[in-house]
Amino acid sequence: MKLLYTVVPFAPLVGAIVAGLWGNRLGRTATHRITILGVLIAFLASVAIFFDVHNGNTFNGPLYTWGTSDGLTFEVGFLIDSLTVTMMLVVTFVSLMVHIYTIGYMADDPGYCRFFSYISLFTFSMLMLVMSNNFLQLFFGWEAVGLVSYLLIGFWYTRPTAIYANLKAFLVNRVGDFGFLLGIGLIAAYAGTLDYAETFAQAEKLATMNEAVTGWPLITAICIALFIGAMGKSAQVPLHVWLPDSMEGPTPISALIHAATMVTAGIFMVARMSPLFELSDTALSFVLVIGATTAFFMGILGIVQSDIKRVVAYSTLSQLGYMTVALGASAYSVAIFHLMTHAFFKALLFLSAGSVIIAMHHDQDMRNMGGLWKYLPVTWLTALIGALALIGTPFTSGFYSKDSILIAVAHAQIPGATYAYFCVMAGVFVTAFYTFRMIFLVFHGKERFGQAHAHHDHAAHGSDDHHHGLAPGEKPHESPKVVTVPLVLLAIPSLLIGAFTIDAMLFGGWFANVIFVDEARHGSIAALREEFHGALAMGLHGLTSLPFFIALAGVALAAFFYLVRPDLPDRIAARVRWLYTILVNHYYFDRFNEIVFAGGARRLGRWLWQIGDRTVIDGAMVNGSAQIVGEVAEAGAALQSGRLYHYAFSMILGIAVLLLFLYLV
Amino acid sequence: MALELPNFALLAPQIVIALAALVLMTAGAFARERWRQWNYVVAQLAVIVATLLTVFTSGDPRVQTTFGGIFLVDWITLVVQLFIYLSVFAALIYGRFYLIERGLERAEYYALVLLSLLGMQILTVANHLLLFYLGLELMSLALYALVAFDRNHALRAEAGMKYFVLGALASGLILYGLSLIYGATATLSLPEISSVAALRPGDERVFGFGLAFLVAGIAFKFGAVPFHMWVADVYHGAPTPVTLLLASAPKLAAFALAFRLLVFGFFEYAHYWQPMLMVVAVASIVLGNLAAIAQKNLKRMLAYSGISHVGFILLGLAVGVVEGNHQLALNAYSATLFYAIVYAVMSLASFGLILLMARSGFEAEWLDDVKGLNQKSPWFAAMLLITMFSLAGVPFFVGFFAKLAVLQAVVAAGYLWVAVLAVVMSLIGAFYYLRVVKLAYFDEPTERQPLIASSETRVLLSGNALALALFGLMPQGLMSLAAYAMIASL
Amino acid sequence: MESYFPVLVFLVVALAIGVLPMVFGWILGSRRPDPEKYSPYECGFEPFEDARIKFDVRYYLIAILFILFDLEIALLFPWGVTFNEMIAAGANAWYAFTTVLIFLAVLVLGYAVEWKNGALDWE
Q1: Is residue B255 part of a domain?
Q2: Which residues from chain C sit within 8 angstroms of residue B29, using beta carbons?
Q3: Given a cut of 80, is residue B324 above it in pLDDT?
Q4: Which member of A37, A234, A499, C92 has the greatest number of CB atoms within 10 A?
């Protein structure tokens, strides 16, 4: 079995190495065959492991010990249980779909082989992250996915906007990683181990301790530090700013990394750490409030976007907020459940957005679309399925997970729960509104493509050769099979997987012994269990419940604004100019960061450079010591006269020195 | 005492090498010209057969003796010999092309290499002071001759002469030390010396005198400060294949010599030799690293770098003496053995790279000759990078773990300031290694001849450098081997 | 003291062998002295002149080879002295004999190589 576990991450790695080193020599077809084969093997192995875990065979052990230092063991190891295997299935399946889809999407890109190498490398990193049994490997995977994300956001490295975006993603993630590393450091310092199981075994002991320097409760400090890492990776306010910009990357990446898998690493990590988080109500409250804020306020931003990918990106932020809220409400399994359903329908939405973009010849502005449903029937249908799942229409997978979150938050007791409940409820409306705004703008209404659109706001997403748009009079075409087949394959789980798995995942003990909930204090999941009477009943009840009506209202409003009276939105925007300005500027987060952090850092940097670096370090230490070393070296070399009797004399002197020791001891 | 036939099987590796050396020597005089290509094959075969015999004859039982106890075969013998064979094997492959191009590939060359190998083998199995001396002389004499092998070349002849004269002086010192020790203890057998309960006060002074001379001689063979003066001139002057041999296998043999004499034989008198070794080690680390910076010749630079590495080996030997703490001593000695092995392998790679770049009429021994290697061959530039990083002790190359292990032992023994000094010196030393990498990657080549090394050199060199990276990722295996050798032998 | 008597005999005989030929030579030989004959014999070199002259490296070669073989032959003495003791201590006589044969064989081999390489040719 251990071999099979090893195959899962390393098959994609082999593919990545082959594609990266020899891709251009092997040719495009061979490259994508090899990488897809690698991911396919990983997927099939994951399925096999899934059934094995289903039969109760879990695994926790080292694969290879790298080193031991001072009692800390650094090793590569796997922890295979229900949580891991769920993530493995999601990651490998979505990755497989994206690999196939890429064949069509990147068909005429010069970086074809490089792209396949990167996404396979990403799959490897993500699998190492989720399969880890210790913090070191978790951190390795964490950084590796960040690295690949950086490389892929800047995939079209000739575009200045892409370089700006990947740098931003990298820097913002460093902030999160700082917290994450701090958390790991605290665990290593106080628990004396990096292994999950050993840490959890000491959780109770850690809960009674205080951090030595600050005096803060240790467990809260650890959890909040770890969660700051999750905030960076899972794009929670205020570390969310990189995610919308990451849309500069090719669309398959937006689907794979920035919607379905990497950004959920934070959610996964918190769920994995549930035995720690359960011990700190403060940390949970923090998680809850951050998540709720993200869920609602980021959703609102989706309303004012005109770039189709950015709408989906803000929707991702908002959905990640939902997952975080579930974590904060101690409903970890619900968060993972939503993570899974979201992975499918969000990947679906991204890929169908990509399909639209292909049809529009890389024009991403929704104001130039409209009425596309006739031309792209498969894309339209699958996007519609995705949208329905996203807004939580009863019986779709999104409904089961989202409704569970709403109920869980309603029953949460910790501080901030009321605020969170308001946010997620209002979020339902916002979600429905922006989702269907997008559907209506893109697929319905008047056909606005093929016009000379000189005046559109291209500055927002850069104008260069990748934003062609259709020529006047040209009609869009449905995308090729390699694009539509993954859409259909993703549409199926988007519709169905929620109904089939909710029972097992939330209530059936699938996560028993893996996710730990202190039900006496945090009763959300227990309450949820009480209200649950089967998937069908839940769906039927959903048709009469409040969230459904809220969502319906959102859809109706979107229909009114964008189908019936398309002139209204602009007039409203003109009326409340100030609000619109705030939204269009993303609440000024970017400007704030730009001025305070970036500007401040630059000023601090300049000061340190002038005073610290140039004067003290360069002047006194580096050049000074280099000069001294150089002079000593010359002197040492001068000793080497080349004369034999000098050499012999030095040996005699040496003997004399050694003999001196006889009198010293 | 009934004399029994000695167990010749135990000495089979040595016998094979000796016979092969005789065969090659005879062949050099009598064989026809067209058989010349077989010299290389015979030499390599002998090394391979000796390796196999070593593996099969030693290790079980853990400690075996023969010839009335003057030969001793244990796990240290096994491990050190295996890496000596590996070094010689690699040295023969790396050097062959160079020698052929310069018309030096003669049977006598191989005979001398095998004779020096025989000397090293004897150093690893000796358990008697006379035998040590015999092995040392056999190794050294063959090496003197090898250094001057290209005798029409002034630089080579000068280097050979210097090496010989200073080596003779060092041999004299060792012999003098041994005779004083014999005078004090009335025996030449190591086990008997170590079991001499207590010396009379006068004898003890004599013994200490002898030890000082012995340590000086050992330090000379290692090339440690202040007995290092020959190193730079000889490394520079010798033909590069000989330098390569000189920098790898004899260091392992010298480790075996020092370890057997000082730790096996004279452990009770550690209070004499420990401070001596310490001074020599620290001086080597300091001077080696500093003087290397000023070098413009790659071989000289590596010579000084070798001096600093030898300092680490001696440091490890010195700090093993911890009052009554068996575990710490074991750690220190196994770290030292690990370091010696790693250093030998790193030396092979670094001089192998010089040989790779060299060709007829071009020695590639100046720093400027490395310039722009990346443009000529990105692959071997990467190998150079790995080797230099490993020598510098950059983390996650094996050189780092070697340094780390020794420094841990130093700290554990309570010599914190020594460890700090060693680290500072290593940092300074990193400069000249990284300079080589910088030249290879960022400078324009001075000439644009392509590399013309043989394919076996290319393959072996790649494997050699990659091994440095691989063992950096998984140092545990080699470390455990070193540790086991110590546990099984002590 | 009695046991030292053979030593005394040995010394007397050695002295006699050393002195008698000189005495007979002095008594029986004809004497026609010239300066060359009074100079000390020194391997064909001019005595009492500048020591820093070039002279043939072959002298050294022969001398070194002589010393090597001389020293190695000297190793036969301890073997010869202890041979009987070895037998008495229970060693196999053939073994004791073969060891020295191997030693001599190596020596002969070295001699052959040396000869073949022309180290013994003066011209």
Answers
A1: yes
A2: 112-113, 116-117
A3: no
A4: A234
Q: Residue A429: is its pLDDT beyond 80?
A: yes
pLDDT at A7 over 50: yes
Residues A650, B226: C-beta atoms closer than 8 Å:
yes
Residues of B with Cβ-Cβ distance to C83 under 8 angstroms: none
Q: Is residue B360 part of a domain?
A: yes
Quote the minimal CA–CA distance from A337 to chain B in Å: 38
Question: Are B169 and A648 inside 8 Å of each other by CB?
Answer: yes
Q: What is the pLDDT of residue A458?
A: 42
Of B161, B232, B291, which has the smallest distance from its Cβ to A633's Cβ?
A: B291
User: A70 versus B170: which is more confidently predicted?
Assistant: B170
Burial class (CB in 10 A: 0-12, 13-18, 19+), B102: middle
Mean predicted confidence (pLDDT) in A67-90? 85
Q: What residue numbers bound the domain in which B344 lies? A: 9-489
pLDDT of residue A665: 65
Tell me what the mean pLDDT of segment B384-394 comes to: 93
* DSSP secondary structure of A423-492: HHHHHHHHHHHHHHHHHHHHHSSS--TTS--TTS--GGG--STT---PPTT----PPPHHHHHHHHHHHH
- With beta carbons less than 8 A apart as the criterion, state whether A524 and A329 touch: yes
Chain C nearest CA to B4, separation (Å): 6
Chains that touch C (3 or more CB pairs under 8 A): B
Contacts of C107 (CB under 8 A, 6+ apart): C69, C72
pTM, two decimals, is: 0.68
Q: Check CB contact under 8 Å for A654 and B226.
A: yes
Q: Could B22 and C117 be called an inter-chain contact, meaning their C-beta atoms sit closer than 8 Å?
A: no
> Would residue B3 count as lying in a domain?
no
Q: What is the model's pLDDT at position A293?
A: 92
Averaged confidence pLDDT in chain A: 85
Give the number of domains in chain B: 1
- Contact (CB<8Å) B272/A665: yes
Q: Is the pLDDT of residue A479 over 60?
A: yes
Q: Which residues of B touch A66 (CB under 8 A)?
A: 473-474, 476
In a domain, B4, yes or no: no
C103 burial level (CB within 10 Å; 0-12, 13-18, 19+): middle
Are A286 and A325 contacting, i.e. CB atoms less than 8 angstroms apart? no
* Range with lowest mean pLDDT among A274-278, A385-389, A507-511, A648-652: A507-511
